[in-house]
Design a protein that fits this description.
single chain
Length: 120
């Protein structure tokens, strides 16, 4: 599949959310990212440097299988790593603020306009 390109993060954001169209995927991302952050924070404050790997290992280790198994797409990280990291942080902030339904609406709108595509 041809990789999608975007000129700005604002153009990328609805696509990123659409690649997380199912609530289960979003909640797995949230759980993995927050768990990874907790393990990394422990490593930082305890001086146990190996635990700093918690964020990338636990975060990606839980998120990527959700794309393959639940969404049936490729993680947007593969084609847009920096914007995907920013998108993940924005998505998690919105979820923690109780705005998951808004994310579902953004995803549904993008998919209705563009069709279901694999990540990229």
């Amino acid at each position: 599949m041809t990789q999608r390109t975007f000129d700005t993060y604002e153009d990328f954001w609805p696509y990123y959310v659409a690649m997380h169209s199912r609530a289960a995927t979003r909640w797995i991302h949230l759980t993995g990212t927050l768990s990874g952050l907790a393990v990394s924070a422990y490593g930082l404050f305890s001086g146990r440097r190996r635990y700093l790997l918690g964020l990338p290992l636990i975060g990606y280790g839980t998120a990527w299988p959700a794309h393959f198994l639940i969404e049936k797409n490729n993680p947007a990280t593969f084609g847009h790593p920096a914007w995907s990291l920013r998108g993940d942080a924005q998505m998690i902030r919105m979820m923690l603020a109780g705005r998951d339904a808004e994310l579902a609406e953004i995803a549904a709108k993008w998919l209705a306009e563009n069709g279901r595509l694999s990540g990229g």
